[in-house]
Design a protein that fits this description.
Low-confidence stretches: none
Number of domains: 1
Order of helices and strands: EEHEHHHEEHEHEEEE
CATH superfamily: Dihydrofolate Reductase, subunit A
Strand order of the largest sheet: 5-4-3-6-1-7-10-9
Number of strands: 10
Helix content: 25-40%
Shape: globular
CATH topology: Dihydrofolate Reductase, subunit A
Radius of gyration: 16 Å
């Protein structure tokens, strides 16, 4: 049975993106890519919201084939091509995509079934709207929050839609030379 593991960048004041979805403030580099890459390599399923999935589909299928592709681009593109993608969307047509399952309004019952059928964890990358939906139904099992040393003042919050208090257990921390801090928490049930 797989766990739902959230990977999300956050500002120090708790936002996943600026008020218009802007993410230029996020710090990423080879050190962070290598750290996350080790974890990603242990699974083969990713869950996205529609907007994030469309961004991923617009980049990763060919990113590793570009002449100037970085090590990260090559590795993640290969993983993306082979990974099973699950998308929370009420509008996407599943038949238009390879190795992709689209889950609509019935996500609250479909996700627990997906967890039962999946070997390894299911990684959620970004996708604030999908994350909020999963939080509402208490479906996230673990959070890897990459806290960036920046204050946005306003924007799209990381955590929203929580119906009741959820306790977390800190499992690991990692400080990167860029000043980003990864906080790995397990949801306590």
């Amino acid at each position: 049975m797989g766990n739902i593991v959230l990977f999300m960048h956050a500002s120090l004041d708790g936002f996943a993106a600026g008020k218009n979805g802007e993410m230029r403030w996020i710090r990423v580099d080879e050190e962070i890519f290598d750290y996350v890459g080790e974890r990603i390599a242990k699974t083969n399923t990713a869950l996205y919201g529609r907007i994030t999935f469309e961004m991923m589909e617009g980049y990763w299928p060919t990113a590793g084939d570009q002449p100037n592709a970085s090590k990260h681009d090559k590795e993640h593109a290969a993983w993306y091509k082979s990974a099973h993608k699950v998308v929370l969307s009420n509008t996407l047509d599943q038949t238009a995509f390879t190795n992709t399952t689209v889950i609509g309004k019935d996500y609250a019952t479909a996700i627990p079934q997906l967890k039962k059928e999946t070997t390894g964890d299911i990684l959620v990358f970004g996708s604030p709207t999908a994350t909020h939906a999963l939080l509402t139904e208490n479906l996230i099992d673990e959070c890897w929050l990459f806290v960036n040393p920046v204050l946005l003042g306003e924007g799209i919050p990381v955590f929203k839609g929580i119906k009741e208090q959820q306790s977390l257990k800190l499992m690991n921390t990692h400080v990167f030379s860029s000043g980003v801090v990864c906080l790995q928490h397990e949801v306590q049930r």
